[in-house]
Design brief:
8-stranded mixed beta sheet, binds flavin-adenine dinucleotide
């Protein structure tokens, strides 16, 4: 099949590669000048089936209301405060019942596990090429808190291995935790099959390989309209002219909403801002593992030989300048506690917007038009889910039975 893939973030790259390897003729169209320059640019890098639970968790409505009314720290509502934002928030809260949380987290976990299998089955890109490590991830809890029973049960039921570590055993696993005077972690869940790596390096290396092996990539090209005739895709109209195709896959992250809206699709994808500080040229000790402080909502990953990235927070919409400054100050303070050697290193700040659906599951599958497919809205887990999403979408396109149930990912779900 002759297929265009619209968008070359981590999801578009994996989708293009999956289809190319199955013998399809693939053209990738990307508005930017290289792969992964938007949301996939400087994310936390965690490949984390062990903590891919839905963010619409029981109690979240109270947290949002408190933050809105009192200015409490987390999560904050940014701009624009328009109809789309409130429609989305209503659905996000509707998805936070214990039953919905369990359902959404279960399907996120199934997709993430599949994604890991596909990703590491052949290791086409070697780990060192994207500063990756497969030594597990640590999810850390402060003195009085413990991992939620409901989360551990989900992992157990899905056969996902984990170990609960306390006190000295935890600090033996990650010696950097001995330094965290103000971040006393007493308990951690260690998920040994989780991993991390730089999504941008991975995407850019993959797309170069794809180009060498025959995938056509059009940089600096924006898709303006998906063209259909009698409910069948005929191609896409771009700023560089019309490109005919039999199939069109929308992997455009946040940009998917307006592209598909023109054809009558009503997608619920809201930008959720997150922040990262990447330190480079770090001399001296760094943590041996990547991890997450659950209470602080901050993750870190020691990339390659001399980099370490700290990432965190989730603010609905776009943050004010003042809020962004506060977020970076918190990341910096945390970084200096966990890894004092960052004080001498250069730091690169970045803000990205997670393209998030209310239930945290992406849209994957065929649209209402012949030849139109969706693979977008991966929210907080696009790197963790990218290979699995690409794999099952390729199965859909080839009329094969997908490896996981795809009903929860359908494009016409309403979330209420
Ligand atoms: C702070 C932060 C930390 C994160 N940490 C993690 C993590 O640890 N693990 C994890 O799994 N996920 C993480 N994520 C989420 C992850 O980064 C996203 O889910 C993922 O990057 C989404 O990828 P994507 O390819 O769908 O979108 P994008 O990377 O945004 O790519 C979409 C592409 O489509 C292009 N495009 C859009 N419209 C058009 C058009 N009309 N024509 C042509 N091109 C178009 C854009 O230019 C862009 O390149 C994090 C996100 C943030 C912000």
């Amino acid at each position: 099949m002759n297929i265009v893939v619209v968008g070359c973030g981590i999801v578009g790259v994996c989708t293009a590669m999956a289809l190319h390897r199955r013998g399809h003729t693939v053209t990738v169209i990307e508005a930017a000048s290289d792969a992964a320059l938007v949301t996939s640019y400087a994310n936390a890098g965690l490949l984390s089936p062990g903590h891919c639970f839905s963010w619409a968790e029981p109690g979240i409505a109270r947290g949002i209301l408190k933050a809105f009314l009192t200015g409490a720290d987390y999560p904050r509502i940014g701009t624009p405060r328009n109809k789309a934002l409130f429609r989305w928030l209503r659905r996000f809260i509707a998805q936070s019942s214990p039953t919905a949380w369990q359902h959404n987290s279960y399907h996120a976990l199934r997709l993430s596990q599949l994604s890991r299998d596909v990703h590491f089955r052949e290791e086409i890109i070697p780990l060192h090429a994207y500063d990756a490590a497969r030594n597990g991830l640590l999810y850390l809890y402060k003195a009085a808190t413990m991992p939620a029973e409901s989360e551990l049960k989900l992992l157990q039921d899905a056969g996902e291995p984990f170990h609960i570590l306390h006190g000295d055993a935890l600090r033996a696993k990650e010696p950097a935790l001995q330094r965290t005077e103000n971040h006393v972690f007493e308990t951690g869940t260690y998920c040994e099959k989780d991993a991390y790596g730089d999504a941008r390096l991975y995407a850019q290396e993959s797309i170069r390989l794809a180009q060498q092996s025959g995938v056509n990539v059009l940089w600096n090209t924006s898709v303006k309209e998906i063209m259909v005739q009698q409910d069948r895709v005929t191609g896409v109209s771009t700023n560089n002219g019309f490109i005919p195709s039999e199939g069109c896959i929308i992997t455009s992250g946040q940009g998917s909403v307006s592209l598909l809206n023109a054809l009558g699709y009503d997608l619920f994808i809201q930008p959720i801002s997150g922040y990262s500080l990447t330190y480079q040229g770090v001399q001296g000790e760094r943590p041996q593992h990547a991890g997450v402080s659950i209470a602080d909502k901050i993750a870190w990953a020691p990339f390659g030989q001399d980099r370490i990235r700290f990432t965190g927070f989730a603010d609905v919409g776009m943050p004010s300048k003042r809020l962004a400054q506060q977020r970076f100050a918190s990341l910096k303070a945390f970084a200096q506690q966990l890894c004092p050697s960052v004080q001498e290193a250069e730091s690169l700040p970045w803000i990205g917007q997670r393209p998030m659906t209310p239930d945290g599951l992406p849209y994957i599958g065929q649209g209402a038009h012949q030849g139109l497919y969706l693979n977008c809205g991966h929210g907080a887990m696009g790197w963790t889910m990218a290979h699995g999403s690409a794999h099952v979408l390729a199965q859909v396109i080839e009329n094969q039975q997908p490896d996981i149930e795809l009903h929860p990912f359908r494009y016409d779900r309403r979330f209420l």
